[in-house]
């Protein structure tokens, strides 16, 4: 037997009108409804007269929220792994930049020394004439 898909409003109406023959449709709704519709269903039905449906809807909502949290955690783990890889690359690049900066400093000092020696030679030759 195929169960007809129903909307939030139809599910609430079935519960409020106490149509027991359509319980399978309500169960199907609870199993497949998006989180926002489950919340709406919980808020629309009376907790006093239909506490069994309220409890079932609450369990379905908690399961749905747990599933969504698990998906979100999985995405967060993927992003964390990607960030870790990027951080490792950044550390390697930083180490390379540090080495290059030290080499640049060394060669700058060497050029500075050559320039100073050249200036001294030019001054000595200037006074020789």
Strand content: under 5%
Order of helices and strands: HHHH
- Ranges where pLDDT stays below 50 over 5 or more residues in a row are none
Query: What is the terminal-to-terminal distance?
Result: 115 Å
For this structure, the quaternary state is single chain
User: Describe the biggest sheet?
Assistant: none
The count of helical stretches stands at 4
Shape category: rod-shaped
How many DSSP-defined strands?
0
* Secondary structure: helix percent: over 70%
Query: Total domains, how many?
Result: 1
Structural class: mainly alpha
Question: What does it look like?
Answer:
The protein is an all-alpha fold. The protein has one domain (8-101). Helix content is 83%, strand content 0%. Helix 1 runs antiparallel to helix 2 (23-32) and helix 1 packs parallel to helix 3.
Key features of this structure:
about 130 residues; mainly alpha; about 0% strand
How does the SSE layout of this entry go?
Elements: H1 8-16, H2 23-32, H3 35-44, H4 51-128
